[in-house]
Amino acid sequence: MKSFYLISLLSIIFCKIGYSQSPGYMGKRASIGYSSIFSASKLTEEILLSPFQEYYYTDPYDPGFQLLSNQNHQIHFDYLITRGTAIGGYLSFWKKNQHSIPIEERIYSPYYTTHNFGYDPHPLILEEGQDIHGEYRDYLYNGKGKLSGQGLGIYFKFFGKKPLAPLGDYFQVTILVNRTSSYQEKTVINENNKTVSYHKINTQNIYSPALILSYGKQWMIFERVLINTAIETGLSFPFGFKDTSLNPAYTDYTYHSYDSDGFYKGEELTKQERIKINTQHGLQYNYLLQFRLGISYMAF
Amino acid sequence: MKKYLLLLAGLVLNHLLPAQDFNRYQPLRVQGSIPPQFIETATHKYEADRASINDKKRRTRKAKEEFYLKSNFGLQEILMSGRVMFNDPLTAYVNKVADKLFAHDMAFRNKLKIYTLRTPQVNAFTFDDGTVVVTHGLMSQLEDEAQLAFILAHEAVHFKKEHAVTEFVETKDIQYGRGDYRNLSFDEKVLAKFGFSKDQESEADLEGLEIFLKSDYSTESIVRTFDVLQYAYLPFDEVPFDTTMFNDENYVIPGAYFLNEVSEIKVDEDYDDSKSSHPNTEKRRKALKKELKGAGDQTGKSTYLVSKEEFVKYRKIARFEICRQYLLRHNYPKALYNAFLLLREDSNSMYLKKTVGKALYGASKYSNQGMRYEVVNDWEDIEGESQQVYYMLSELSSEELNILALRWNWSVYKDNLDDEELKLIVEDLSYELANEHELDWNSFYKQSKAEKEALKLEAAKEDSLVANTEEEEENLEGLSKLEKIRRKQEQSDDEDEVVSEKDSDYYRFAFLPWRENEVLIAQFEASQEKVDAKKAEKEAREKMTRSEKGKLFRQQQKEVRLQNRYGHAKGFDKVVVVNPMYQRYNERKSEPIRYKNRETVLTSFNEKIQKSATATGLDIEIINPRSINNNQADRFYHHTILNEWISEKIHHEDGMHLVSPIHNEILGVSKYYGTTNFCWIGGALITEKNDAFTTILLYSYVFPAGIIYSLTPKHTTYYFTITYNLKTGNSEMVEFVKIKSKDHKFMQQSNLFYTFQQLKQTR
User: Fold this and answer.
1) pLDDT at residue number B490
2) Number of domains chain A is built from
3) With an 8 Å Cβ cutoff, are A164 and B566 in contact?
4) Averaged over A39-43, what is the pLDDT?
């Protein structure tokens, strides 16, 4: 059934292309290009910090407003189907590494030993009747969030009333799916600042669809070379799904919440869920206001 | 032997070339080698003129630079318009007169470049480079060769004394209140400007006379030259219009359509000339007469040095030419009256008969659309004998005018059935008759008045008994007083109607002479069929069910959508691009026209046209007067005809579609290039001050970036293209694009490509 829909969609598109009499630029209708998208939000930092946000920060970290660091790269392909309409697709990708943040985490450790200055994140499996002996200890480690994303989008560009596509002002509607891969690294160090253990935790991929509306302008600087600028806004839908199959061992850490008097309130979200929510929020902020600067080549 | 043969051939050719058969008159056309002046760029001429400026005062230098800039580009515009004639017999004659006039100073004569201009306006003017232009209108009005020589002498003084540049510089001083013009009021400045101009004209009159006196031309008639100019608004002759011109034995236009007396010509020769560039006629005449008193002996001098025959012949040619010009300007009454004047001498001239036909056709078409006032001036404003034509064209009903136009054109066409433009005119007029006035072949009498009278008499005899009985029945006895009055009034009204019917049905005899002409009958039938088909289509549309209407509407919408989305798809193989034009204006400057780069911009625009056409695979040919060489007079002539044709077409009122008065000429051009598709392309960039300047500045504290916006000029680029089928006269594709942006070269290229793609492609 899926393939039926796909074939139908493609046949509609190519039928249109077949009938169309788009002039393009001097008969050239297809362009391949690169665009850089800058977001005004604190997207990546929000997500990267999310696993650590309940812990005590030895050195509170404020990433601040980082437009340039919120950069999204796109490789796109446009094809003009009429004088004023273009259809296109793109692949986008972005990657973000957080600076190492020193984290001091208080955790109840049943197997604490003085010689083992470190953190074993493996969950404890108690045998029946076994007592838990341990105490709360503050652990120090370097935390680092990593986030990477890939997007696959298709779009339509509409070029005004008396269009001269691919030149001039345009309005663009994009539908895309993002895959956001997120994980954290904890590097436990000893007193000599040597790595005791390294853990890659909370690894997961989050898939979320989004709709983006853009208003921009394309113009030519040399024969066949197009420059493209746009302002964009969009919506990342909350019904994304996650893929936690990569490392299930680290996925079930549950947040506990306490009231103001310190009484235990119960379990809340798992860390995975928290990251997912933060990712989606982050993407939403990201799409709220973006700027595009691109260059393309009219290939054929 | 060979030498004699060549001599003989030369003599024959010399005799034949200027020969003009007025019965088969062919409009003048440029020929021979194109003068270098037409080919040299304005930029080049401007640079040369600028280099020659050696004034010490900066403001004078600047003013002269501005003058040379405007003058050179202005002159180039006129030369490129195609209306300036060279190497044609009329221009050659004017040059011959100049040769005679300046025989004593040929060095000066050779500095003058004398041309004629296709316009009915009565004028002559001079440019700073020695270009003298004499209009066909002026030539048509002159009385003799000496008057033409005097006008040339007058114009030569303007050149010799550099009047144009001096006046420009002086006007600048007046405008800015410099020197002697300091502290003048606006009115005083106006008077000073006109005063200076009048001084120059008086100087040209008097010094022109000095030149004239050195020649062998007689001064006898030159004082009357001013009268020629004074009465230039009237046709070239004052002859009572022949009100029976259109009549025959049966078809007689009622006398009510003509005036008993035309308006008197009233001219005040001593009018107030304080706000005029020239002194009034009376003053000029007096000044000239005064000078002539000391002119010396005139014996041995002659009014004609070239020849009287040539003067008369070329004046006549000018008169024939202005008929054509009046038609092209939609001045139908003047064309008609001028043709009438000329027909008295050349009654068999097909050209003149067609001029009358085309004038009636134009007036009829406008009249049928309720726009007669657009082409026929109020007859009360007209003086002289031509008023009769204005009156007739104003008073005839649309129906009568349509019939008259068809009748006249048919009478010319019937003997020239292969004349394409007459054919189209007759078709159009007969269609209008059926469509606008519901008149078909049966609406016209097939019996003459005499035949009708005979039949009536016969019928009257038969009906006499019946009539008597009816009269008896019309016994008013027994009716009330009021009823008797009413009956009598009705009888009286019936009688009046009979009289008016008799008066107004004259036009039903219009086609009586051709009552058995199969071609005419077929034409009427074809027009009626066309109208019937149109009506049937309309009725069918009215009878459509709702769903059928919806289906039709959807089909139409689909067609519109397809056109919007995919453009036109004309499928042409070849198109001729005519005189591409491009202009940049900067309205923020005191001189908005950007002259200096005009030629570069145009050259670049032409290159883009060629490049786009090549990319689409469309075969194009560009007729561009700016890029022709001196042996392409044919191409220059084509450019002239095409310019006249398009200009006539676009100056029609909205919704008016007429057969061009130069349709046959344009068909010749079309045949030459092997295509009927001709395309006019142009564009303009207009730079303006931002409208929102003040508003944005006021609110700049709210929107600081608005300051940058408000200081940025507003650019608007216009691009247009119109493609006509010369054979049908219909537009095939019209595009008008307005872009709120600068005219980037790639945008121009893209627009041009799209135009040619639409012309080339098929859907």
Assistant:
1) 63
2) 1
3) no
4) 68
